[in-house]
Amino acid sequence: MTDTERTLEFEFVRATENAALNPVHWLGRGEKELADAAACDAIYGVFDNVNICGQVVIGEGIKDNAPGIFLGDRLGTWPPGSPVFDIGPGPHRWHQQYRRWPAQCHFCDGRQRSEA
Q: Are β-strands 74-75 and 53-56 bridged in parallel, bridged antiparallel, or unpaired?
């Protein structure tokens, strides 16, 4: 594993951690959309500073103007020559007993493509 690969792995972990922590303000308040928006903002915030070409291949469909990271969205700064990734940010549904928590905690997973 190269230093670049290791650094990029940590960026994906950081996006996941930030997506889990950013909506904590909304825990137990019944504000699913605001919690979702906070998680998505956290993921975008991390990837706004990462030199990759990331394409969301597993995302939400655009429905009822809810916040989300949608299929086809681009993540990363997209400079020429950067690694190309298929990214699958997605929700983790909490167990029923935690239904007053935000409905979704996002995670981020990526698979590097060999061609641009």
A: antiparallel
C-alpha count within 13 angstroms, C-beta hemisphere, residue 78: 6
Kind of pairing, strands 84-87 and 104-107?
A: unpaired
C-alpha angle 35-38-44 in degrees, rounded to nearest 5: 145
Distance from chain centroid for Cα 99: 21
Domains of the chain listed by start with CATH number:
3-113 (3.30.540.10)
Pull the structure tokens for residue 60: 């939400």
32-84: pLDDT as tens digits: 888 888 988 999 999 999 999 999 888 776 766 777 888 899 999 999 999 99
The dihedrals phi and psi of 49, each to the nearest 5 degrees, come to: -120, 10
Report if pTM > 0.90: no
Please answer whether residues 6 and 76 qualify as being in contact, where contact means their C-beta atoms are separated by less than 8 angstroms: no
Chain CA centroid to CA 28, Å: 22
